[in-house]
Prior knowledge:
By secondary structure, this protein is an alpha+beta fold. The protein has six domains: 10-181, Galactose-binding lectin (Jelly Rolls, Sandwich); 193-317, Jelly Rolls (Sandwich), CATH 2.60.120.260; 337-593, Distorted Sandwich (Beta-galactosidase, Chain A, domain 5), CATH 2.70.98; 608-632 and 654-674 and 877-956, no CATH class; 689-843, no CATH class; 961-1062. The protein has 19 helices and 52 strands. Strands 13, 14, 15, 16, 17, 18, 19 and 20 form an eight-stranded antiparallel sheet that branches. The relative contact order is 0.06.
Amino acid sequence: MNHHLKATITAALLSVLTFHIGVKAQTVTLDQFESTEGWNYIKSDGVNITAQTDNGLSGKSICITYNFVKGTGYCGIQKLFPINLPENYEITFYIKAESPSNNFEIKFIDSTGNNVWWVNNRNYNFPTSWQKVRVKPRHISFAWGPTTDTRFRRIDRIEFTVASFVGGSGKIWIDSLTFKALPPISNEYPAPVAYEISGTQSKPIAEILDQQPHSVWIAKNKSIQEILIDFKALREIGGLKIDWMQGKQAQKFDVLLSYDSINWEKTFTVNLNINSTSYIRLPEFETRFLKLKLSQSNNSKGLGIKDIEIIKVEESNTLNNFFRYIAKNSPKGYYPRYFLDQASYWTISGVSGDTKEALINEDGMVEVEKASFSIEPVVKVGNKIYDWSNVKTSQSLTYFIDGKTYDYTPTVNWHTDDIDLQVGITSYGNANNSSKLLIGYTLKNNTNKNQTIDFYLLIRPFQVNPYYQTLNLAGGVGTIKKISLDASKDRVEVDNTSLYFTQKFESFFAGSFYSANPTELIRSNHKEVVMAETDNLGLNGGFVKYTIKLKAGQSHTLFAIAPYHSKNINDSELKTKNIVDTIAKVSDYWRGKTEYVKFNLPSTAEHLLKTYRANLMYILINRDIHGIQPGSRSYERSWMRDGSLTSSALLKSGITDEVKEFIEWYAQNLYENGKVPCVVDFRGPDPVAEHDSHGQFIYLIHEYFSFTHDTAFLRKMNPYILRTIGYIESLIAERSTDYFRYGNDSLRAFYGLVPESISHEGYSAKPMHSYWDNFFILKGLKDACDIQIALGNHEKYTRIKQVTDTFRKNLYKSINLTIKNHNINYIPGCAELGDFDATSTTIALTPCNEFENLPKPEIYNTFERYYTYFSQRKTGQINWVNFTPYENRIIGSFIMLNQPERAHELIDYFLSQQRPQGWYHWAEVVWNDYRTPAYIGDMPHTWVGSDFINAFRNIFVYEDIDHNTLCIGSALKQDWIDSPQGISVQNLPTYYGNLSYSITKGNDHYKIKIGGNIRVPANGICIRNFNGSKLPKGVEVNGTKLNTYNVNEIRVNEIPCEIKIYY
């Protein structure tokens, strides 16, 4: 058959398929996989995939064999299936595998190929025998694409993809892909009817389904009793909420389902129930009949039920939705705040370079193990119970013990009339070996009388990381498969984690969620806490209980310790004195790391300084071994983008070793052709194209050299640099053909650039020719030239310089052409859209140092337009939903544009958006409504934090590369330089050495002393924007009158020096 005829017949058959699916409610077989015809491979770099037929359910199946050679990436198969979708439908297929738990993605792609909807099964446990998968509209969500209409109404291609979660290799078999149109979705069902079954007799019992609190059902039979619910039609359910009569719970019961009331399938069993309300999750079940088999009462009072409520499918289709439903049907405080759809904020604790970090949220809940469990305090004073919902809270980085303060310790304080509770966490030990989490709890009696306090520590499978955090790691419900008391009864074992306590607890409880809810036990005044059953569903929990007697005003502290990597602990580590010494040592360690630069500023700058120091600490905690990462949960990966700019912040703060380690580690992950991966994690390099990474890698090496002057290291890294330059040249060549050179204006705007990419992920919907990418390419080329000069490689310098000059010329031609094509008056974000993005354009100023070459007045207009928007948002003139605090980097732009007042206006605003204020950090996303339960990236997000550090440093000093000068004091606030004690900065690293200076105010002058281990740049040291840019009456340098100064700058060429500026 000729190819044209075959294509025509195929198209005709597909059009018929589309028509029939659209009009008839029938099952249509899309592919029985008797051959691999029509299936195309989709894969990223560093991944191998093959597909062939194999034995199936009946006949053949398709077998996908994959291997993540580099550890990361994705691969899959894709085929054309044009389907106009009805309102309701079901797509099914069978699957089995021999595969590690990687992400299994079912994708649906439109005719453009750009818009993707998916079912994203993260960390999927592939079945080892054939299992049917059903996909309904509620399972499908919009993944990415440029469309503004994200309604899913048509399929053009179906794709089965495996994306690396742990990497490795495997085989996946798929068979019998079908599509079935279903009746329209309806929430209207016939009213169900309940029956009491006794032998062969049945009796209607309306009272258990009427949702009336005073109508109840009581069983005459105290042992076995059956209740049948007839839904009157086949329907989907999500589970059951059973409100038992007090003291008449069924101790053991089964839930059975049936289509015909004859053949029953047992779907759930509880063997030891002491809950007063049972929530039973039955996700994605479809049935006509439901039977409750109640086997035994908890006591001789018999069995009784107040009400049974049918949980909807969408209320239990995920564990997080299930607990959101439960929390909304429970007293406030029973469950973490986020299950009530209130945003919850947190911070981290860990050891620099460790792969494990703990979290503490604003309510004092501590996540001990990622995606696993947390510890939550509950305090009982008489009949009063205090939890997060009825106390006033505050947060800080200072822990108080016996009148002494310990900084760099994340702390939460509860305040009530009866008691105060302080929860503080820190981490100590050797990273990835003996590191441990230390939690301190201090109770204080606030009354003038003695009090007996019951103090509980709940241990439950809930994360601090909330349910709406879904990128790379699902927050919310975690897992506890086993919880028990160690044989010695001095510690609690939670799966692979040991919890040690400095004070022996009075009692311990553990049980399955389905058997005994620990918060209910605490509130129900059980005289004896029983041990309920645990199960393998991962929802076990428990608590330890202390009874503490406090005199009026007295405080009491106890500690819990959880080793991060091992189960062992030395007895000496549990002694309170040694613990306090450890907290002090950790505090001193962080002080030493973050206070290399000494700032002496007025108290009005305290928040600013604490933010600077705190974010240095958070950056180092977020590190995993050598990898600099922006987060410890959603963003626990190392991007070159984040890492290079964060490394710059570290270098500017005197932290160098960690940067060197990061460079060496990342360099080992370059591809053979010189491609710099956008991101690397424990699996290896990610193949996704983000073309900023290549220039950033070279910039990072040059930045390290600029601060350390380590020529030997530079020479060691130069082969990697030259490989990267070769890859950059190959990218430029792709857009340097005559097709782009002589094309229309739109095509010519791409000429000489690097190809489109998702860039800084600002173009994830559709890759673009991003100027962010191209400015960093230019920066990398320029720095590569400087590196060759430093190493004496003149021939290599000459060649790279030619590439650089040509690339710069084409870059500015492109920018000017895009400005013309889109009729705009600002610097665009990308060539295709002519979009406005000042937050990305700012890198053209620093670190790319292209201000002199940027089009004028467009660069000024860019930041003028941003400032107008910023002011309107700040003053409430416009409605806004959220913003990303990457805008912090624009602070530095305004300083470099000699607009320090605007810079400080931004600083004050962004500091006000820290949540909570006492932890001095930002998430990646800030929502206008403080309690909006929506994705925030990670917290603390330390690329945002490093953006702030880099901008903060510009207040005091920055290198003006274009003019070969060092600028100091460009954004010093008036009240700082006017303060009676003056200000000083010591040991501030620069490209030219460590700078120190001080400023004091006299009667008619300011005195500035500049010193340090520093060499003077070719064009001197420039004091900018001093004293509100007022023109001095006179200036003296080391006693000699200076004649060359103006309102904006005073330039000196000798160090040390004493400058007097008269007004």
